[in-house]
Amino acid sequence: MPILRDFERRLGDLVEGFFATTFRSGVQPVELAKRVLREMDAGKTVGVHEVWAPNHFVFSLSPEDAERFEQAEQALIGELKQVVRDAAAERGWGLVGPPEVEFEVDEGLSRGRFRCEASLVEGEPEAPPSAAPVQVGEATLVVLEDGRPGTTFRIRTQTVTIGRLPECDIVIPDPGASRRHAQIRADGGEYVLTDLGSTNGTLVNDRPVIEHVLSEGDRITIGTTELQFRRS
Questions:
Q1: Which residues contact 175 (CB under 8 A, 6 or more apart)?
Q2: pLDDT tens-digit map of 4-48
Q3: By C-alpha distance, which of 77, 72, 24 is closest to 195?
Q4: What's the maximum distance between 2 C-alpha atoms anywhere in the chain?
Q5: From CA 90, how far away is CA 85, in angstroms rounded?
Q6: Nearest to residue 178, comparing CAs of 190, 164, 161?
Q7: pLDDT tens-digit profile of 100-118?
Q8: Is the pTM of this model over 0.70?
Q9: At what angle do helices 29-43 and 2-10 cross, to 10 degrees?
Q10: Cα gap 73→60, rounded to integer Å
Q11: d(CA 69, CA 80)
């Protein structure tokens, strides 16, 4: 199914990094995406002129699975919301409000088990992508060499991967960097930095982060390499 393939592709960097060590057992991210699609189909309502599908999903997880999801929760929620949008667009279903996904803990659930409650929750429709405040190409990362600006990388796509591998969008030949170290994605008017389960971690302004909304002038440290985030 194209929607699920796209979901797994978008999560590819996280799966290879953080998820590869965290999700070897228990609930798998693709299981949640499959459940979203099933709940949308089962819960759709036929109106006079349109078919309305659920847009609000609450997942109940075991304490162990919830803990394993915690560090990458926002990235996963963002991708599950995209699954809702893609399914609605592909099947011609309407949404009464923007997609919403929540996680909660259920002490009665064992590892690998989860529940999902889907509902239609009215809200302001999302702005079309062309109206989003963030335009690809309007942000840059500048390598700081002894505190002075060096090489500049322009963020040209919605998602940019940083690491040692040649296929990364921004290649950092630093032994302290992981193969796929971190990711920056444009999301709703902001740029969000996510550590991809790197060995040595990612710092923003000298503080370790798992996920961080970037602001003008933020300094990102990967290994011994320092990059400054700038809005063009």
A1: 223
A2: 777 776 666 555 555 555 556 688 888 999 999 999 999 999 877
A3: 72
A4: 65
A5: 9
A6: 164
A7: 999 999 999 999 999 999 9
A8: no
A9: 140
A10: 13
A11: 13
